[in-house]
């Protein structure tokens, strides 16, 4: 016997019809936020964004009252260029020189095999030219120092890099070499509070999402495949304190393969301080293939700085432990370094640096190839570089 169909009451039908409209008008679940913290940069964005926002993973707190020398040593003003991880002995210097000479010979032999024309230039010729270069003063600038008129408790990201000298702010780098960095005068809880402040304001400032709306968002935290479990726990505690609707951890290598449309691949993640290598098979990270190399982009920047100094780098006041000079060296590295062995010979470059005192604009002689950061007043320098 066929089942008798119950007829819905008119009132129930009306309530069901109104339900979608109420859902549309009411609060909706926002899309997921991706957080990808690293040693030098924090990558943050919505899941639907084509590319994330890259923010220097730095935070600077205002120091009230006189500075404590011990605390100042802990904060350090961390640069984007790492110091040498081992002491440079005479033996290491000799090995470095021998390695550089071997690379020069190999490149010359390679170009000779390709029959690439070029004129050999004496090293002393362009080094002497660079040493004669002086700065050209200029008053105008596209970039300026961080505005601290509101006396903020702390600043994050790029604002840290452009803090005025003697601003009264101490700079901290919560993650170094892929691990939490806890200065001697600080505790684990204080470093985790730094991360919470940094991540919260990064989302608020760069994604234009107020803290009160975090409860309607999910977050995906991307972490390296080989990472300390205690660090994972602490980072998730930070995310929980930010009060998201839901949170999940995911491995960098697996996300990289899926975003590339691959199920299996060997993933090499060259970070600023650490390089991670891992193989992914059928969407699973293989623990037996994980390798951590304690060098990255910052080591290349440091080597680049040493090489240009061998060429008579005209910016003699450049300091690797300065945030601004670290940005300059990174920008020069990105605009000058290449992998094309056929490009060689003398090249003219021009860049701008911060000037402590205002000056006047002088005539320019060389073609501008790359520019570094400018303050309210800057100096324009030129130098030539000979590709080996």
Characterization of the model:
The chain has 388 residues and is an alpha+beta fold. Helix content is 34%, strand content 21%. The strands form 5 sheets. The protein has a 5-stranded mixed sheet. Strands 12, 13, 14 and 15 form a 4-stranded antiparallel sheet that branches. Strand 2 and strand 3 form a beta hairpin. It starts with 9 loop residues before the first helix and ends with a strand. The model is unreliable at 1-8, 12-27, 69-76, 356-380 and 384-388 (pLDDT under 50).
For the structure shown, list the relevant keywords.
four-stranded antiparallel beta sheet; five-stranded mixed beta sheet; 388 residues; Actin; ATPase_NBD; alpha+beta; 34% helix
How would you briefly describe this protein structure?
With 388 residues, the protein is an alpha+beta fold.
Q: Separation of termini? A: 92 Å
- Rg, rounded, reads 27 Å
Strand percentage lies at: 15-25%
Let me know the average pLDDT: 76
Low-pLDDT residue spans: 1-8, 12-27, 69-76, 356-380, 384-388
Number of strands: 17
Globally, the shape reads globular
Strand order of the largest sheet: 3-2-1-10-11
Region (Disordered): 1-32
Organism: Geodia barretti
Family: Belongs to the actin family.
Protein name: Actin-related protein 8
